[in-house]
Amino acid sequence: MTAAQGGEVLLLVNPASGRGRGLRFCTETAAALRAAGFTPAVVVTESLEEATRKAREAAPGSIVAVLGGDGFLGAAACGARDSGVVLLPLAGGRGNDTVRRLGLGIDPVQTVRNIPQLVVRDVDLGLVNGRAYFGVANVGFDGLANEYGNSTELNLGSLTYLYGGLKALREWKDVTFTVTVDGKETVFPGWFVAVGNVGQYGGGLRICPEAKVDDGLLDVVSLGRASIFRVVATFLRSYRGTHLGTPGVGFTHGRSVTISANKPLHVYADGEMLAPLPATVEILPAAVKVLVPRDSPVFS
Fold it and tell me: What is the pLDDT of residues 191-248, one digit of tens each?
């Protein structure tokens, strides 16, 4: 189904995403929407909760354009699954992993201009203890890297998470995970567990390269006992999505994933801290309608 032309579009903007990237593109994006025949109602939000509420209050079938980072998009998706709106993800963050993996590109103005070529598709949502996310829920070394990346004052763009990862390498040790996928339990010492829906995070890491957003499944990728060299090599390979099958890397998929550890850790999803361990990650099939290119690579 293609997007309808004309009518009102709710443009949600996160002023904090990407160090103000959303605000910088707000005026041009709204102008592009008007040029495309839409009437944009612009809301510069004050919180992720407001993004959820605004998307929930929008009229079913209407378009909600989301100009922010991955976490902001996930917050809007929480409301969209209740209201039945159509989401248009726009790159307004630092990494913009979900937008890029969907095939929409990182120029929000150009994405709006491409609306006539986009189609509406049903997309699965991941849930961490009931809270929605699009891309990857992760816990472990990479979660610590995410924390360091978010807290840095350096303006590194998509390299922010690489910086955080290098810093986290120095502090990670002696962690044992217990992961249960659809009732099958595995216990292992390791570095991380990633549960993917769109499957990309961290500024270009295709950690779950086979993930599809319309298969009703979560892809679970983990790294067990490994040297620091192996950890670095795994993440470097993940930029190309070629790390599956290498020593120490585990891969499976399922509908329900429970994660715990012998140390206090938090689950991150789409760059946001969502919950402490233990946590349950589930899939909600065909939960949200999203505008995407016809040849988007994350559909079956």
Answer: 999 999 999 998 899 999 999 999 999 999 999 999 988 988 998 999 999 999 999 9
Structure tokens at 37: 């025949």
**CA angle at residue 239 from 221 to 195, to 5 degrees?**
25
The dihedral built from the CA positions of residue 215, 90, 279 and 56, taken in this order, carries a sign that is negative
Backbone angles phi, psi at 269, to 5 degrees: -145, 130
* Cross-strand pairs, 219: 196, 253
Q: Provide φ and ψ at 284, rounded to 5°.
A: -115, 100
Report residue 253 CA to chain centroid gap. 18
List, in sequence order, every residue forming a beta bridge with 201; answer none if it has no partner.
Answer: 205
Alpha helices in the chain (DSSP H): 21-35, 48-57, 70-83, 97-102, 108-113, 141-151, 160-169, 228-238
Q: What is the dihedral of CA 240, 246, 249, 251, to 10 degrees?
A: 80
Q: What is the DSSP letter of 106?
A: S
Q: What is the pTM of this model?
A: 0.88
Q: Please, how many CA atoms are within 13 Å of residue 68, restricted to the half-sphere of its CB?
A: 30
User: What residue type is assigned to position 74 of the chain?
Assistant: G
Q: If you ran DSSP here, which 8-state letter would residue 117 be given?
A: G
Strand, helix or coil at 32? helix
CA distances from 47 to 43, 44, 218 (A): 11, 9, 28
Upper half-sphere CA count for residue 80 (Cβ side, 13 Å): 34
